[in-house]
């Protein structure tokens, strides 16, 4: 009883000191002072407890460990919980923290809301293929409202790792290969989650991850070593993390990998020099799952105690699941290896955010059962997910206009993914379930207007061809075959790297057999990474890349196939012809011996003897049911001064038979630099909707700022000289003009 009074008493002291924080927009500075006032009340053990993040017993998203979340919270040994959601459950845990600990400091609840919470949107790579930043922001906003209504205040997203190796299973969680597009997506998602006001109970704290360069593991194997030049790190991999920080993200997660020999959770160059000093980050740093402990097998420290010291001194404020702060920080302080000032600063950064989220005002403000019922998985949210799903789809081939499917045609729907609902949700679908989700097959039955027959044909993999006969039979009887192939959703995401990016052989065999019927074949793909589809592309008439399209994906795919929606997605990542070309991305360098197809002596050129250099489908590529033409590319001037701006104009015409949207892309090439420059770099894009027959002038602006890079001496700036501008509908854009950047 005494403990309870003490607890309530001290809680009231804290509450009194913050009584004035009732304004809608809680100012960070005020929150910092208030956090300090709480820190002053805390014992060292209580402070360390705030630096601990543990999984709830409800779920685990990493190596299994025995957890007793309730006991740890009660003992004040854990100030933050992940993998707990729903109002009922988070409230139960929050009550323990508030009522049974001495100071009653509220818990912070985090969760992996990767592409939607309960209403699942397309996987992030798919969303990036929409090139529609408004749609992406809206998707994050809805995910935030659902998460916040389910008792959460913190999402472990956006994942902004640039990835150029399709073997890596987590390429599905990011925005693809390009830093410019990656930055725009990162900003949109942070804005969507936080909406510039953490004190609004429908927003959540974003957590940018995985800092840094986690998307470049050697050989595409998850968690593997990352080694790259500082120039590449700064020019390609860091920009999206910075863009997210600049957009206001107030937490960041360290990555599992090492970089230049130093694991991220013990890397002061990343955490202090770049994040805090260069970027002015004001939030807190959390590790990934047990990544402090993992510095022992990395071989940078001899034991977990040293790992704890290395991490905290490098600037890691919160230990996810590793319990090493819990076990060793006190001892490290008493030995003088860690200062209490370091701990105070870390705790203040964490509590500041809890103040900003309004948790000290009302720890149960995210625990409203009515709100949960109304908001989560609402019809409105599912409609929004449908909209984004339509926008994410990329038409990769469409010979003889086999798509859209003409009404009334009979369809043979075949393939291991045609009737799947689970796979539509994609990897890591948070609280999403298949409840209320309908497959592509179900939707085609409803909307195609003709007879629809179905045969699975084969499994995802294996050698069983016993289903082929039935598939061939229905193909023979149909007007068009819709063949739904790809990867089961468990083949992408964390710890799901592959050594092959081919379709499993059994699926290709099924396609080869179906081809023999001479029926038009539409290949619908569900997958979370670029696949090598050279053989398949030749065999089919049309290809629609649908990624994993989410809760409303079945209807969205059916509507794109039947022409209810005209596809407008563009690839955010290069699709190679074969794995041997990897890494392959549009912004490669020219080399000293570029391969030119025309010319005399080609042997000693940078090329393969068994494959073309070009990818199967380039970055930025995607077709429409209509046709877009580019003409009259003009620049406002042939020169650009340091203070000036250059306007680029192009006429875009919809000359086909459908209304539709085109993503107009602007690329720049710096011809000569103090270090070599990529052949092309994306510098702008606009998604433009045109009615059939319509022409519109599209304008881009370039300034000197967009031409900056890390020069020979690693200073960031531009260099005067000649540049080329390319405008078009993909990274092979051939509309070219030149200009000169003046001194
Ligand atoms: C490990 C993953 O790398 C990370 O993305 C995730 O947020 C954490 N586990 C928590 O589940």
Description of the molecule:
This protein has 743 residues and is of the alpha/beta class. It is built from 23 helices and 27 strands. A 6-stranded parallel beta sheet has the order 5-4-3-2-1-11. Strands 12-17-16-15-13-14 form a 6-stranded mixed beta sheet, sandwiched between helices. Helix 7 runs antiparallel to helix 17 and helix 17 (379-392) crosses helix 23. Bound molecules: 1-deoxynojirimycin. Residues 61-62, 112, 156, 209-210, 288-289, 494 line the site of 1-deoxynojirimycin.
Q: What share of residues is helical? A: 25-40%
What name does CATH use for the topology of the domain at 383-581?
Answer: Rossmann fold
Which small-molecule ligands are present, each listed once? 1-deoxynojirimycin
Describe the main β-sheet briefly: 6 strands, parallel
Q: Please tally the helical runs, counting DSSP H or I stretches of 4 or more residues.
A: 23
Offer a few descriptive terms.
single chain; 743 residues; alpha/beta; Rossmann fold; 6-stranded parallel beta sheet; 6-stranded mixed beta sheet; 23 helices; 31% helix; 18% strand; binds 1-deoxynojirimycin
Task: Briefly summarize what is shown.
With 743 residues, the chain is α/β, with parallel strands linked by helices.
In terms of topology, how is this protein built?
Elements: H1 2-17, H2 28-39, H3 44-50, E1 52-55, H4 69-74, E2 80-82, H5 87-100, E3 108-111, H6 124-128, H7 133-149, E4 154-155, H8 179-194, E5 205-206, E6 208-211, H9 230-237, H10 239-246, E7 251-254, E8 258-259, E9 262-263, H11 268-278, E10 284-286, H12 295-298, H13 304-314, E11 319-320, H14 324-334, H15 340-356, H16 369-375, H17 379-392, E12 394-398, E13 411-414, H18 422-425, H19 440-447, E14 452-455, H20 468-477, E15 480-486, H21 505-515, E16 521-526, H22 534-539, E17 542-545, H23 553-561, E18 628-635, E19 639-640, E20 645-654, E21 660-670, E22 681-690, E23 695-703, E24 709-710, E25 716-717, E26 721-728, E27 735-741
Parallel strand pairs: 1-2, 1-11, 2-3, 3-4, 4-5, 6-7, 7-10, 13-14, 13-15, 15-16, 16-17, 19-27
Antiparallel strand pairs: 8-9, 12-17, 18-20, 20-23, 21-22, 21-26, 24-25, 26-27
Helix pairs in contact: 2-15, 3-14, 3-15, 7-8, 7-16, 7-17, 8-10, 13-14, 17-23, 19-23
This protein binds 1-deoxynojirimycin (NOJ).
